[in-house]
Write a structure and sequence with these properties.
By secondary structure, this protein is α/β, with parallel strands linked by helices. It contains 16 helices and 10 strands. The protein has a 10-stranded mixed β-sheet, sandwiched between helices. The protein is globular. 51% of the residues are buried.
């Protein structure tokens, strides 16, 4: 049996991007070291879809990029940054397999708008990252770099694990319930899900297109802000805003987290209050069971619609939990799905009305019911992410301590289309919660 090398490695996006742009970091040498790490660590993490000629391709693309931008003063913001791309997002030159046995030629499509945007900003594609089957609950082989016997979360499993293991400073994922925020929390990194449609979703294999979001993973809040400024429509940088007023959504929603996770959350809140943050405890989502059921009915219906043609031809190639969701979706009346879909705007407005009435700038809550479960048969429960995804509000998770030797995430939720303010507030706030794992690695 192979002895695992250190699976965590500091690789923050913001300083790496600055060093590459300014020429302080030699791009070919950087990529050589990165490929060395991939070859050493990837067998133990299994975050990336295999690619035999990855190193050769990346080095050739780097030479093209250097020839295009020889002057460091003219280089774009993500010059030379390798990006992992979840394997339901189309990338020119790469097959899309979606963690499925369905033939790849049935899953083709034009390159995603988000990927084209990253390329225009100077990014290179490290490769595809492992996803659960069609971004639902049937997991791939990816392991949590903190404790490989535990899930990395899903469905953006490979993207989260690749960033946590330092295989890439930036990766794309998608979220329909909790597939960015939950794996980021489980893997001890930063995950960002923007306001609905702020990052264009054209060019993905849709799960449920009325609620699908493209999101991203980094090790640093500054890196998340940098990537968001490239990817989000109509991005307008904001100066450092005043300290936000924080709200805790009290009631049955919050009670979905485990007692141990809630105790850790209370300690996180206490640290913020001691640092001078105003925290208000406000009842919210008293009907969370109804909200959860509605969202699940909607996404099941839309998933069944998206897969109608493929499932009719390749049902035997679909795995059991995916089949069960399609069967569930086939039984949802179209009128019911439309009513739930149309209710999203009213639901979002209600959340924001509560924020306005109580003077809340950001909601604060656990990013998952607890740390990553043991075993690779499940990807954990996305229940703490669901209402925010249904509302389409911008969400960020930051590392916030450890429970049973595994990371916890703190989930921050902003107002509709105020993604810029959320990210501007998140950096100082995160520093009060707990230094991140990679700062601790650097110290040692």
């Amino acid at each position: 049996m192979m002895t695992a090398p250190p699976l965590l490695h500091a690789h923050p996006l913001a300083p790496t991007a600055a060093a590459l742009r300014e020429g302080r970091l030699d791009l070919p040498a950087y990529l050589e070291r990165l490929c060395d790490r991939v070859e050493t660590v990837e067998p133990h993490v299994q975050a990336l879809v295999p690619e035999p000629e990855r190193r050769r391709r990346l080095l050739a693309e780097a030479q093209v990029l250097l020839a295009r931008y020889p002057d460091p003063t003219s280089r774009p913001p993500l010059f030379g940054i390798p990006v992992g791309v979840k394997d339901i997002i189309h990338v020119e030159g790469f097959p899309t397999r979606a963690g499925s046995q369905v033939p790849a030629e049935e899953l083709t499509g034009p390159e995603a708008a988000a990927v084209a945007c990253l390329r225009q900003a100077g990014a290179l594609i490290l490769g595809k990252t492992v996803t659960t089957e069609f971004a639902y609950f049937e997991p791939g082989p990816t392991r949590n770099p903190h404790q490989p016997a535990h899930t990395p979360g899903g469905s953006s499993s490979g993207s989260a694990a690749a960033v946590a293991a330092g295989l890439t400073p930036l990766a794309l994922g998608t979220q329909t319930i909790g597939s960015v925020i939950r794996p980021a929390a489980f893997c001890g990194i930063v995950g960002f899900k923007p306001s609905y449609e702020r990052i264009p979703t054209a060019g993905i294999l849709y799960f449920a297109r009325s609620v699908d979001h493209i999101g991203l993973f980094t090790q640093d809040v500054a890196g998340a802000a940098l990537a968001a400024s490239v990817l989000c429509r109509d991005w307008h940088p904001v100066s450092e805003p005043d300290r936000p007023r924080l709200g805790i959504p009290e009631g049955p929603y919050l009670a979905q987290a485990t007692p141990a996770a809630l105790a850790a959350f209370a300690a996180q809140v206490a640290r913020l209050e001691a640092a001078g943050y105003t925290v208000r405890r406000v009842p919210l989502f008293a009907d969370i069971e109804v909200i959860n059921a509605r969202h699940r009915r909607l996404i099941a219906f839309e998933f069944a619609q998206e897969h109608a043609r493929l499932f009719a031809r390749y049902e035997s190639l679909y795995r059991p939990r995916t089949v069960a969701l399609i069967r569930e979706g086939q039984a949802v009346p179209a009128e019911e799905a439309a009513a739930i879909r149309n209710g999203r705007a009213g639901f979002r407005n209600h959340v924001q009305e509560v924020m306005a009435a109580h003077g809340i700038d950001l909601w604060l809550c656990p990013a998952a019911p607890g740390p990553a479960p043991v075993g690779l048969e499940t990807t954990g429960n996305p229940i703490m992410n669901l209402p925010w995804t249904y509302a389409g509000l911008p969400v960020l998770t930051v590392p916030a301590g450890v429970l049973d030797g595994l990371p916890l995430g703190l989930q921050l939720i902003g107002r509709w289309y105020e993604d810029e303010r959320l990210l501007a507030w998140a950096g100082p706030l995160a520093a009060h919660v707990q230094p991140n794992f990679y700062e601790e690695i650097d110290k040692n």
